[in-house]
Amino acid sequence: MTLPLPERMRAMVLTGHGGLDRLAYRDDVPVPAPAAGEVLIRVGACGMNNTDINTRIAWYSRSVTEATASGGAGGFEAAREGDSTWGGAGLHFPRIQGADVAGRIAALGAGVPEARLGERVLVDPWLRDPQNPEDRAKAGYFGSERDGGYAEFTTVPAVNAVAIESDLSDAELATFPCSSSTAEHMLAKARLGAGETLLVTGASGGVGSALVQLGKRRGAFVIAVAGAAKIAAVRALGADVAIARDAPDLAVALRAASPGGSIDVAADIVGGPGFPGLLDLLARGGRYVTSGAIAGPLVELDLRILYLKDLELLGATVMPRGIFENLVGYIERGEIAPLLAKTFPLEALREAQTAFLEKQHVGNFVILPGGG
């Protein structure tokens, strides 16, 4: 069952790994048809995140050791095709990226209830094996293992199209799927509890700003680190303390800001040379959790600090079922707010990624395939 649909659509197509020139704008891409158990979504908006750029430039390849921005515009010569995706495999081209879709169901595959036609949805980007959804080794990602939302239409398994009722615009809703679900997964995995102290690095970005809000939602005392020009915006998100990352003695400032002089949970998406200092700040039995390394993936670890302080090091990528549905509930109840930095039309995706790499914004960039 379908609503009236065109045969062709506009889309931004990734033609291979490399620089921004690998993104090709087209207006003749066939509108995909939903298979059995799937839905076709008319994309209202699609948020942008680091995963889009990391995948384009093959930053996930273990041959790459630099920070994301080092190859964000032109790619990495050292990148290998065979381990270029988040899961350690290669990518099939052409590919339509974009994981953060808000829109409405425009057509139904066989077996999907007719009542879902026209439903407003957010897309859970994690594609799970239908027979064994808890097997993380069989998981895929929307916009990586299958085409995503940088297009006027996209298909997903019906279970990934999560109904939402909200007065927020599609652009505002599209700020949540990847960044906020990643943040909630990090905090759930680190078991952040009320009254604990949370340190958030990169607090002005999509995941970082979500960590601040979701940490406060859990009742934590939140210390945020961001660029000096963004401190006021981070405080407005609810951070109890916000400190500039280039403070003269950042470690001393962070320790002084913590009520107990140490940190219970460090939620880090930056990595790079600042990693050892985060472990030094953790209290005995503290937890470090990461879902990114925009400042560099290779870090120095003193194993003595790890075992003598009884620390836990946690990675957060494939989130368990339930987290995305919980997130939708938070949005519907107004417990977290969107942080929309700017919108761009689909044909300006290269411009959007260039601005994204400059890291002068606070919050999320969103692409509007319909033009606004």
Question: What is the element layout, followed by pairings?
Answer:
Elements: E1 8-14, E2 23-30, E3 38-47, H1 50-56, E4 100-108, E5 120-123, E6 126-127, E7 140-141, E8 153-157, E9 161-163, H2 170-173, H3 177-189, E10 197-200, H4 206-217, E11 221-226, H5 231-236, E12 241-244, H6 250-257, E13 263-268, H7 275-281, E14 282-290, H8 303-308, E15 312-315, H9 323-332, E16 340-345, H10 349-358, E17 364-368
Helix pairs in contact: 3-4
Please describe what this structure looks like.
- The protein is α/β, with parallel strands linked by helices.
- The chain folds into two domains: 8-175 and 338-368, Medium-chain alcohol dehydrogenases, catalytic domain (Quinone Oxidoreductase, Chain A, domain 1), CATH 3.90.180.10; 179-315, Rossmann fold.
- 22% of the residues lie in helices and 25% in strands.
- It has ten helices and 17 strands.
- It has helices at 50-56, 170-173, 177-189, 206-217, 231-236, 250-257, 275-281, 303-308, 323-332, 349-358, and strands at 8-14, 23-30, 38-47, 100-108, 120-123, 126-127, 140-141, 153-157, 161-163, 197-200, 221-226, 241-244, 263-268, 282-290, 312-315, 340-345, 364-368.
- The strands form four sheets. Strands 3, 4, 5, 8, 9, 16 and 17 form a seven-stranded mixed beta sheet that branches. Strands 12-11-10-13-14-15 form a six-stranded parallel beta sheet, with helices on both faces.
- Helix 3 packs across helix 4.
- The protein is globular, with a radius of gyration of 20 Å.
- The two termini are 27 Å apart.
- The mean pLDDT is 95.
